[in-house]
Design goal:
Residues 1-22 form the signal peptide. The chain is α/β, with parallel strands linked by helices. Helix content is 33%, strand content 20%. The chain has two domains: 10-145 and 259-278, 3-Layer(aba) Sandwich (D-Maltodextrin-Binding Protein, domain 2); 146-256, D-Maltodextrin-Binding Protein, domain 2 (3-Layer(aba) Sandwich). The chain contains nine helices and nine strands. Strands 1, 2, 3, 4, 5, 6, 7, 8 and 9 form a nine-stranded mixed sheet that branches.
């Protein structure tokens, strides 16, 4: 089921953040006023978004376009590690294309902010977002939360006990039944495997290497193979719709982060990007 159109994440973040009084410097214009300003500006903007496939954020693009039909929203989805170096090159060569960027390579945002490449902008209710999920000056904020661990297909266990810890995955009974994203290709998956290695040791890594794991590019593939029943377990992905079970928390290592979004200070269409950030899905 698609998330209700442009329901903000502020309510969720507010549960984590102290106080409810908005701080100075936050946007005070209404959505209608921001929309009018975006249309007057030219009615368009370009966003670069991290993702495994070009269609990964189609729902996002459709939702925004349905809500704001007078805005031409160009959304380009590719791996975050491709977007960031492209943006660096465009900044250096003064050929910047995107107005707005949302990536999982979180380290880029403080770097861009310190270089003055991100616009300091605090949308409505910015102060309600937990401090760990926003830049104090408004240069960036998390607008979605993601988590990676491993999943298993509860309908494909074929009599095997469900794996309750990554240590279980090293059992030979799971050989040939595991799919995974390449740990050296996706930075978030690499970090997840790093946490697993620190928690369970190199002996665990050696045993996993003997499991005939189906490694594939993209976190979506491991999930799809598990969901289809072709594999039982998917590592470096997420999901919770039946019959898929996500394993993380309760003492089991997993990874969670806030996908950051920021407006480029040299954006050609700042009014439209502000509208997007205020109405963040």
């Amino acid at each position: 089921m698609r998330v209700q159109l442009f329901t903000t994440i502020v309510a969720a973040f507010a549960l984590l953040a102290p106080g409810t009084v908005a701080k100075s410097g936050e946007e005070t214009k209404s959505i209608d006023e921001l929309y009018a300003a975006a249309v007057a500006e030219g009615g368009k903007f370009v966003m670069h978004h991290g993702g495994d496939t070009p269609t990964k954020q189609n729902n996002l693009q459709q939702a925004f376009s349905e809500r704001f039909p007078e805005i031409n929203f160009t959304l380009i989805v590719d791996y975050s590690k491709y977007h960031d170096v492209l943006i660096d090159n465009q900044l250096e060569t003064k050929t910047l294309v995107p107005d707005l960027v949302a990536l999982q390579t979180l380290q880029n945002f403080p770097r861009w902010a310190s270089a003055g490449n991100l616009l300091k902008y605090k949308p409505t209710n910015f102060s309600k977002i937990h401090e760990s999920l926003r830049d104090s000056d408004g240069a960036w904020m998390a607008y979605k939360l993601f988590t990676f661990g491993y999943i298993y297909n509860s309908s494909a266990l074929d009599g095997l006990a469900a794996p309750t810890s990554p240590t279980d995955l090293a059992n030979p009974q799971w050989a040939g039944k595991i799919a995974s994203s390449y740990s050296n290709d996706d930075d978030a998956v690499f970090f997840l495997y790093t946490r697993y290695t620190k928690a369970y040791g190199w002996d665990w890594v050696a045993k996993m290497a003997a499991q005939n794991i189906s490694f594939n590019r993209g976190t979506n593939v491991a999930g799809s193979l598990a969901k289809s029943g072709e594999k039982v377990v998917g590592v470096g992905t997420s999901g919770s719709s039946s019959p898929i079970k996500f394993v993380g928390g309760n003492g089991t290592e997993y990874l969670s982060w806030g996908q950051r979004v920021g407006i480029l200070s040299k954006a050609k269409h700042p009014a439209a990007t502000k509208l997007f950030v205020v109405c963040r899905p």
